[in-house]
Amino acid sequence: MRIAILSRNENLYSTRRLKEAAEAKGHEVDIIDTLHCYMDITSNRPTVRYHGEELPKYDAIIPRIGASITFYGTAVARQFEMMGTFNINESVAISRSRDKLRSLQLLSRKGIGLPRTGFASKPDNIKDLIKNVGGAPLVIKLLEGTQGIGVVLADTAKAAESIIEAFMGLKANILVQEFIKEAGGADIRCLVVGDRVVAAMKRQGAEGEFRSNLHRGGSAEVVKLSKEERATAVNAAKAMGLSFCGVDLLRSHNGPMVMEVNSSPGLEGIETSTGLDVAGKVIEFIEKKAATATNKTRGKG
Predict the structure, then answer these.
(1) Which of 287, 200, 265, 297 is nearest to 65 (CA)?
(2) pTM for the full model?
(3) Rg of the chain's alpha carbons, rounded to an integer?
(4) Cα separation of 97 and 145, whole Å?
C-alpha cells in the first residue's frame, strides 16, 4: 500500500514510529507537511497539491494534526476523503474530539461516565454554577487548552469564583468540572485502535501536581484495566467516530470517567512504558480496513 502521514514534523517520535512500522510491513510511506498542502476545491476531480506537484493516489492517510492547525488540517484530510482515500481518523471525528464541549455532550448522550461538568458564558449566579458540579474543590478548564495548559484546580468556593470571574473577564470559554479526589492525581491513558484497547498506562502527576500529563513531569507505568474500563474507552472512541485515539480515564467511586479523547495521541510514552508496538497495531488495522472500508462521511460536513 501507499500511505501518507500528515505531520508537520517528520522527526517527531510518533511520526517516525508510524513510518517505520509501515515500511517494516512493506508499505510505501510519505510524510506530508499538512500546512504545505493546497487543494483544488471546485474541480470535478478533487486533488491535493504539494510543493508545486499533484500528490499521487494514496491507499490510506494517517492524520497527525496538532490542535493549533485543526481547521486547516481537517480541511486537507477532508479533501483526501473526497478523493476516496481511506482515512483512519476522519475529518469530522477529529473536529468532534477537538471541541471539548461537543465531545462531552456526545459522550454524555451515549451514557459514558463523565465528571459532573458545567459550561456557561455569563452566568447570573456563579455560586449556583459551582454548586451544580458538586462544589469545591473543582477544576476549571479553558476549552482551547492542551497538555494540561489552562487547567486550574480551585480548592475553595471563593477561589473558584475568583478564577471564573477572571476567565470571563478575558472572554475565555471555560468548563467547570467536578474534581475526582479519589483518583489521587493519576489518570489512565488507553490507546484504542479499531474496537479494542491495544495498550494502557497509568500516568501519575508529580508531587503536589494534580495534572498527570507527562509533559508536566508526570510518570507512567503499565496498568491492568478492568473489563468496564476497556469497554468505556472503546465506547468513547466509537462515540467520537475515531479508529485510532487516546482515551484518558479517571478511576472514581462511581466507575471509570472519561476526561478526554485525543485524536492524535503520542506514542512515545505508552510504547516506552508498556514495551508494546502500538504503531504496528495501527498499521495492521489499516491493512485490514483500507481495501474494503469506505469513509463514512466522504468529505461531508
Answers:
(1) 265
(2) 0.87
(3) 20
(4) 13
